[in-house]
Amino acid sequence: MRCTFSLGALALLLPGSALVPAIAESSFAATQNEVAVVAASSSAAPEPTPEVAIREAGSDVVPDQGIIKQAPPTRLAPAAKPAPRVLHSSNGQASWYGPGFYGNRTANGEVLRPGNMTAAHRTLPFGTKVKVTNLWNGRTTVVRINDRGPFHGNRVIDLAHGAAHSLGLTASGIAQVRLDVLQ
User: What fold does the segment set 86-182 form as a domain?
Assistant: First the structure.
């Protein structure tokens, strides 16, 4: 009958053997390497955000050792959205409407709610996107035309409360603006 022992078991059977410290050191080193490998694999890069594309690089073979090394993934920048084209620009005075009109229907049938980023214009078609820039403070926002007006003086646009707030004209009530009609 054949019996086999591991080196560790054999070293334990031989008291005073010089193998015991060497085996202990090698098993300690192996344990440290395993811990390092486990730690390295658990500290992988975090998952990329959905808008960032990931491209996997190909594997490289080291010719002398025959070891396959995997290159880390390369982050690619998200594709830039093309800037909307400006069809028409004009300057004029803007005003805003809000609390007294909440719950009322606009000219296209939508219900006016607090915080809407919409506006009223006399002639632009409903659904038109307009970039409005407050010329007094430089703030800019994009609104959607869903109502008719303003019907007061020479004002060119009447903003819902959300748009007026983002442009910083709720306190003054009116402001000089530039309108850029977007495609």
Answer: Barwin-like endoglucanases (2.40.40)
